[in-house]
Amino acid sequence: MFRAISTLLASLTLAVPTIAENPIAIVIHGGAGTILRENLTPDVEAAYRDKLAEAVRAGHAVLADGGTGREAVIAAITLMEDSALFNAGHGAVFTHEGRVELDASIMDGSDLNAGAIASVTRVRNPIRLADRVLSHSPHVMLVGEGAEVFAADQGLPLVENSYFHTDRRRKALQRAIDEEREALSEDTGDIPVIVDDKHGTVGAVALDQYGNIAAGTSTGGMTNKRFGRVGDSPIIGAGTYADNRACGISATGHGEYFIRAAVAHDICARVLYGNRDLQTAADEVIQQQLVAMGAEGGVIGLAPDGTVVYSFNTAGMYRAAISSAGELSVGIYGESESMVSK
Amino acid sequence: MFRAISTLLASLTLAVPTIAENPIAIVIHGGAGTILRENLTPDVEAAYRDKLAEAVRAGHAVLADGGTGREAVIAAITLMEDSALFNAGHGAVFTHEGRVELDASIMDGSDLNAGAIASVTRVRNPIRLADRVLSHSPHVMLVGEGAEVFAADQGLPLVENSYFHTDRRRKALQRAIDEEREALSEDTGDIPVIVDDKHGTVGAVALDQYGNIAAGTSTGGMTNKRFGRVGDSPIIGAGTYADNRACGISATGHGEYFIRAAVAHDICARVLYGNRDLQTAADEVIQQQLVAMGAEGGVIGLAPDGTVVYSFNTAGMYRAAISSAGELSVGIYGESESMVSK
């Protein structure tokens, strides 16, 4: 009964017709980091809020129209990949060699099927390629040129690498290279850790009216990355995980730590085996384990009943949701201002 | 007291001097699959048993000599990578294009540090490169040519791809291509699933006298693989996981399912959050969840007290261990003949 009313409210609030009896919900992120109010002009802040609202509405419209969780995740992430505001698709960060290499993954919580791609340079929407790996190949993960050949076979739109380029990210690369040069003056023989503006990995988690949870993540990785570095975004269990019994999770942050802690799967496992609710599980991993490891970042998640979850140990995380009650919320900074409804 | 006696027994049995007070143990695998007694000649079976015993002894010698779990894992896996008996290093399977592409990972349970590499073609011992990623880079995962550049920077031995080639694996590729051609006569538009001889991924888990567990895995992947396919072996949480609080795990099997189920991390999580012992946790994942998904394979593992664990849902798994009591065991087929001491 409560579920039916929630859905009715969702329909009314958004004025989208739906015959759904079950809750639908969606939550998205556009990266976590040292995002402070004093560093964003009102115009830039408004641009982020508008794009986040547009993306989460696009995903919700798919759900309200009877679409699947995977389709909603793809709709929301595609809009963010196409926006220069985020570190995914157009506007992604540069590698050390001055090109863009993209990673993405998607998972369906109904059957634990998954698709992931890493280090692709010509696929306009990496999240769509990850979904084709899920649906049209016997594999889960494809990397590099092989993944591009598969993309071409699948008829997905290919672009020149320059399509992804923006001046803002090119300048960030130059800064990173300059900082690295300074760091190397005290050379230890190892590869220096580049302190980086890691904001901008995008992700989405959606619960459809069929009770299925899907999660997806897409990124350009780290500015100045090299050696074919792959972060957590395309790693099933680290950046993305979905299991109808427990959770859908998409992560953003210092990817190496997120892989080592198997963040997305660990949160789900604490729910499944440790009887935590999803918010508690997410907080244990993000606020305790990752903090103890010295790692920054955050996650978004949905519980099987549609409860929206955020946890981040950074100053801010670009985020938005439409709850099972149909309420839109958009947030950028820390919890106090948190999810001001828009 | 029991631990001290165990260690004493280990010393006596192996005649290796040690001043360790804590238990040491090591377990290795050389792949799981439809390995049946009637398909192995006595000579071939003896060759596998000898090489497994040699590899596990090499790892144990490192531990008895005060070496770390990581060093023991590397010693054991390097011997199997160098042997044509296994699908790793020399003797690995061919890709569709007729070359060898190798994946490996290693994890240290003391600090959850990890290293992984995928799709390398010239690094003689991939497990050593994975360990250099762990110890000498700020990253966890490097793929493709970038990983080779890093290997060269690190001074690791590089070889021509032909070093890895064997006639046996070249014939397996031809068989797979022929079978695929038949399968394609009933083309569905998707990539056909190739039924493959997947035996041979290798792995090791070691507990050192400092109480640290390390786990590693190395493979050539699937015969006839293409599109830059990456399986579970280099995925931290899928093919490999180690956490001193709960477990070390190395997996072998149908990699796509092992990624989707996050096998290695899930087994550890069931111990940590669900209070299972490690054998129960491994059996739940391998004998129940994976069987329900239709996936074949197995795992080896060590608990923090040195208890050796195996679980496989295939006819056989090449495996060997030296327990904390110093007992060597080597096994190939199902549980009935299981771990006959050699």
How would you sum up this structure, described in words?
2 copies of one chain form a homodimer. Chain A has helices spanning 2-14, 42-64, 69-81, 126-136, 144-153, 167-184, 255-260, 263-274, 278-293, and strands at residues 25-33, 102-108, 113-120, 141-143, 202-207, 213-219, 229-230, 240-243, 247-253, 297-302, 308-312, 316-322, 328-331. Chain A has one domain (20-341): Glutamine Phosphoribosylpyrophosphate, subunit 1, domain 1 (4-Layer Sandwich). Chain A is 36% helix and 22% strand. An 8-stranded mixed β-sheet of chain A has the order 4-3-2-6-5-1-12-13. Residues 1-20, 187-196 and 336-342 of chain A have low confidence and may be disordered. In chain A, a hairpin with a 5-residue loop joins strand 12 (316-322) and strand 13 (328-331). The first copy, chain A, is an alpha+beta fold and 342 residues long. Chains A and B meet through strand 3, strand 4, helix 5, strand 7 and helix 7 of A and strand 3, strand 4, helix 5, strand 7 and helix 7 of B. Strand 7 of chain A pairs antiparallel with strand 4 (141-143) of chain B.
Distance between the termini of chain A: 27 Å
Task: Give the CA-based shape of chain A.
Answer: globular
Q: Tell me how many strands of chain A there are.
A: 13
The class by helix and strand makeup of chain A works out as alpha+beta
Total count of helical runs of at least 4 residues of chain A: 9
> Which radius of gyration of chain A do the C-alpha atoms yield?
19 Å
Report the sheet with the most strands of chain A, covering strand number, pairing sense and barrel closure. 8 strands, mixed
The quaternary state of the protein chains shown equals homodimer
Helix-residue proportion of chain A? 25-40%
Biggest interface reads: A-B, 51 and 51 residues
